[in-house]
Write a structure and sequence with these properties.
Distance between the termini: 29 Å
Structural class: mainly alpha
Order of helices and strands: HHH
Radius of gyration: 19 Å
Helix content: 55-70%
Number of helices: 3
Length: about 80
């Protein structure tokens, strides 16, 4: 990732989330900070992908190639509830 400046922040976690975080960090042989950084990067990447998919979906709904095709892809691109 190159030489990246790091900043120290404070994050408040409930007891169960902290315990789960520490357990996974030990299991994957990483420290807590590395695990949280990776999880945050992955989450931000998923949000970016969702936003791009939503823009594409809206574009195809405005100017569809074929109405049936748009309905099909809209249902296929639906994200499950988290």
């Amino acid at each position: 990732m190159g030489s990246t400046m790091m900043a120290t922040i404070q994050v408040v976690l409930d007891k169960e989330l902290l315990q789960a975080t520490d357990k996974v960090a030990r299991k994957t042989k990483r420290n807590r900070s590395a695990l949280v950084r990776e999880a945050l990067r992955e989450h931000l990447k998923r949000l970016e992908i969702r936003a791009k998919e939503e823009r594409d979906r809206e574009g195809y709904m405005r100017i569809p190639e074929d109405r049936e095709e748009s309905r099909f892809w809209a249902s296929e691109a639906a994200w499950p509830d988290e």
